[in-house]
Sequence to fold (443 residues):
Amino acid sequence: MSLLMILQLLIVLGALWIGSRYGSLALGAISGIGLAILVFGFGLKPGTPPTDVIYIIIAAVTCAGIMQASGGMDWLIQIAEKMLRKHPDRITFLAPLCTFFLTVLVGTGHVVYTLMPIVCDIALKKGIRPERPCGVASIASQVGITCSPIAAAVVAFVSISNANGFDITIPGVLAISIPACLCGLMAAAAASYHRGLDLDKDPEFQAKLQDPAQREYIYGGEATTLDKVIAPEAKRAVYVFLCALGVIVLLAAVPSLLPSWDGKPLKMNLVIQIVMIAAAAMMIIFCKAQPKKAVAGPVWQSGMVAVVAIYGIAWLADTYFSNYLGAMQEMLTEIVKEYPWSIAIVFFLVSVLINSQGAVVVSMLPLAYSLGIAGPVLLGVFPSVYGYFFIPNYPSDIATVNFDRSGTTIIGKYLLNHSFMMPGLICIFTSTIIAYLLTTIFY
Fold:
């Protein structure tokens, strides 16, 4: 590895690190500075921006945002809340299942902000340390991305794999990722079940209760969505959205149903875009969803932030790796030939930096295939593309800390000793091992 190559890699990593400090749109925008330095300063040939993935994200979050504007998301949250309040003693296991499946349905982990205060409220009322369900539920909200048929990470994995000779479909990916990630989440929940001191034995918590103002803050409020009236149009919007998901999965599982031209069937990335946009239009026409309200909603806004992030990050990474592909192959081929699973470590470390599973797949999967790693191996380590819980600067983690009125869900004094580290590491380690074993059995 030459000195020039190392210098340019440091520029790439520096752009990602600085962008992660500012967060939001800055991650993609500051990646553009790194890209400009590589292209104009060092003369590297620009890579290819990931337009297919970007179009899929736009279509999916538009559809999900329209469903949220119709009130459909409130209905889904109500259903989850009813189940949690019916079984409060099992909230450490049920809360992550709720956040996981919400993400699987909608394709983004940002739908859980309404549910997190409810999880904390139920835990407090039951006398359960809120850190236990809240920590693993936040992890689950992001793990669900690798299990959603409309998530950019899943679609990008399928399209890049197919282009590199691994014939895999969206249902094929989900058949591995969903059971593997559910096992990982349940392992994390089991480890969290008795985590920390019970509230009645926690001296810090008990000291807070001595202050009447603090006691009122902790126990005085109540977070709930059960008082919201759900209109029939909101329920119809959910049905439309679920039908759209069903159509996508069906067409992915049975390619013979797809139209074809010159013997080539319609690509799944276009199928997702067409179905999602059509479903959004149906919700506007038949479910009284207001487009202006959708644009102002958190689902659409967070999705557009993801578009900018993936646009900048993936273009920057592709520019660097495409120019040094030969050198990378020479350096890494022997390692991955001997230990092909070690690419999971690379995926995880890159995710720590760039806070986007879709961007990890788009930027790193082509490199993995170029190194000669087999498709089934890459499918087996797919859960490892989520590592951005490691440094607790992601919005869902920060929001969860703020929602926990008890103060037990924390970002520690030393940054890495936070409430999401243990459940995150257990979940991803377990999920990756199980996914790897499943691909060994079935491929």
